[in-house]
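README: folding subset

This subset contains proteins for which both the sequence and a predicted structure token string are available. Records are stored as plain text. Below is the entry for Transcriptional regulator (196 residues), shown exactly as it appears on disk.
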Amino acid sequence: MSESSSRPTRATPDDAFRKARDQWLKGERIHLASLAEELNIGRATLFRWVGNKDLLLGEILWSLYAPLRDRARREVQGQGIDYIVGVYHRINAALLNDTALRRFIGEDPEYALRILTSTSSTLHSRVVQSNTRLLWEQIDGGYLKQPAMKTESLSYFMVRLAESCLYSDVICGREPQEEELEEACKAVRILLGGQP
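--- output ---
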């Protein structure tokens, strides 16, 4: 046996991310000290790779959100207001019924809300940016009139509307419901200049 094949493989930043993501999906709490120990690396190395726990969770959530968004964009037909509202509805309906997300919120609602919705959250800012790009694509393609407000502001309000439906159990003690998402979609349609 060669010397190189007998050496244990060193963990990589991708290994740390995958292991943490798997733990989150299984409903296990992520502890950076335990994760570093499992990977046989120092805590300082893990922090250099993933930042703090909040940043790591933001990356995990984004890794689940981005493919969901991409699938919605492929599956929804048309252009303009109908397309944007269709993508918006499909993404948020999936999130409304996501078991791992609901479990995350149920375990520590205040912490989950901070990770999911804080303006300093990597997830929230990326969702707003992604939504802004979608709006600009439709405007630049001539499928959507220039909104009456800044596109970035419109995107931000659209995301906040979705969050108010998805996380209503934490925000106001009311279980999230499909009917509220339908109302949010009507509001988005109106914000985009369409008829409810």
